[in-house]
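Dear H.,

Thanks for agreeing to be a second pair of eyes. The structure we're designing against is below in C-alpha cell form, covering all 293 positions.
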C-alpha cells in the first residue's frame, strides 16, 4: 500500500506556481491577486481560509480576505461581491462555503463575475466544464485529478465509484473522470443517499472517491483489494489524544482500509492541501487571462 501524500505533492506544485508567478510579475508587471470572502466564525472555514492566505503568500500571490459577521444581509454580501467584481486589481474571487442559512448560496454564486470565479462554481463555468471547454475547474476535483496524474495512476477503462453528489465535489469529479482525457476515460458510477446496494457498488471500484460527509463511513469490507481510495471527507472529532481536544478524520476508516487499498489518501495531508494549490493555479490562470480574455 502506498500513501498518496497530498501535502508533499502540494509543496512541489507550489514551487512550480511560485516560478510562474515570478515570471508573470517580471515579464508582464502583473501581480496576481485573490480575494476571499469569509462570512461568520465557523472554525473549519476560518482554518481553510487561513491556509489559503498562507499558501498565496508562499507563492507570491496577493490575497485579501473580506470578513463579515454571520448576520450580514444577503443584499450587503451581494454589494460586496459587486464591488470586488468591478475592482480591476482583483483577478480571482471566492466566497467560502457554507454560508449562513438566510443567504442564498445560489444567488451569491451567480453574482460572481465568471471571469473571476476561480472556484469554478458559477453556472457558466460549470457548463464549460461539462463541455470540456477551457474554464476554471473546481478546486477539490481538480486537486484529485492532479494527485492521480502525479502518482501515475492509470484511469483509462477503470471502474470509478464516487460516493456523494455534491455540486462542489461528487458531481464535478464524476464528470471529469468520465471525460475523454488522461486522467479520465473511467466508467463512473455516482452513488448517493438513495442508492441501493451502495456497499456492493463501492466494492466494485478500481478507484473509489469518497465525498459523502460521514466520518469513517467506508470500511475494509467496502473496498476491493488493490483499489485506489481517495478520501475527500474532513471531520473534527473529539479526542483526548490531542492538545486541541479534537482530531481530524475522513469519510474513510483509514486504519482498516489501508490494509486492502493499493493507494490511499490520508486526512489531513491528502486532498485538502491539493484543493488549495488548485485554487492558486486557477488564480494564476485568471491573472494571465487564460480563460476569459
Ligand atoms: N467556496 N468553499 C469554497 N471553495 C472551496 O474550495 C471550499 N472548500 C471546501 C469547503 N468550502 C469551500 C475548501 O476550501 C473544503 N475546503 C478545504 C480547504 C482546505 C483544507 C480542507 C478543506 C485544508 O487545508 N485541509 C488540511 C487540514 C486543515 C485543518 O487543520 O483543518 C488537510 O491537510 O487536509
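And this is the sequence the design step returned. I haven't edited it by hand at all.
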Amino acid at each position: 500500500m502506498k500513501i498518496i501524500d497530498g501535502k508533499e505533492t502540494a509543496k512541489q506544485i507550489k514551487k512550480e506556481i511560485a516560478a510562474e508567478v515570478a515570471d508573470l510579475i517580471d515579464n508582464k508587471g502583473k501581480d496576481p491577486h485573490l480575494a476571499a470572502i469569509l462570512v461568520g466564525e465557523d472554525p473549519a472555514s476560518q482554518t481553510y481560509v487561513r491556509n489559503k492566505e498562507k499558501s498565496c503568500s508562499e507563492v507570491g500571490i496577493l490575497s485579501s480576505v473580506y470578513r463579515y459577521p454571520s448576520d450580514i444581509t444577503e443584499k450587503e454580501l451581494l454589494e460586496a461581491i459587486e464591488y470586488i467584481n468591478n475592482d480591476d486589481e482583483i483577478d480571482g474571487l471566492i466566497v467560502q462555503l457554507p454560508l449562513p442559512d438566510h443567504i442564498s448560496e445560489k444567488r451569491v454564486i451567480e453574482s460572481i463575475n465568471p471571469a473571476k470565479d476561480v472556484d469554478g462554481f458559477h453556472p457558466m463555468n460549470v457548463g464549460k466544464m461539462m463541455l470540456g471547454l477551457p474554464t476554471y475547474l473546481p478546486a477539490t476535483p481538480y486537486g484529485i485529478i492532479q494527485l492521480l496524474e502525479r502518482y501515475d495512476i492509470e484511469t483509462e477503462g477503470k471502474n470509478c465509484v464516487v460516493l456523494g453528489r455534491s455540486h462542489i465535489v461528487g458531481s464535478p469529479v464524476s464528470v471529469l473522470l468520465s471525460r475523454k482525457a488522461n486522467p479520465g476515460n473511467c466508467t463512473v458510477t455516482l452513488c448517493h443517499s438513495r442508492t441501493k446496494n451502495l456497499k456492493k457498488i463501492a466494492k466494485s471500484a478500481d478507484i473509489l472517491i469518497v465525498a459523502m460527509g460521514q466520518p469513517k463511513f467506508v470500511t475494509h469490507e467496502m473496498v476491493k483489494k488493490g483499489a485506489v481510495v481517495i478520501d475527500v471527507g474532513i471531520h473534527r472529532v473529539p479526542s483526548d489524544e490531542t492538545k486541541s481536544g479534537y482530531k481530524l478524520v475522513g469519510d474513510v476508516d483509514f486504519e482498516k482500509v489501508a490494509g486492502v487499498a493499493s493507494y490511499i489518501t490520508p486526512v489531513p495531508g491528502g486532498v485538502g492541501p491539493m484543493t488549495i494549490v488548485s485554487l492558486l493555479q486557477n488564480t494564476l490562470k485568471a491573472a494571465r487571462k487564460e480563460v476569459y480574455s
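Two observations from my side: The first strand starts at residue 2 and ends at 3. Residues 47-48, 51, 94-97, 119, 139, 234, 248, 267-269, 272-273, 275-276 surround L34 (CB under 6 Å).

Warmly,
E.
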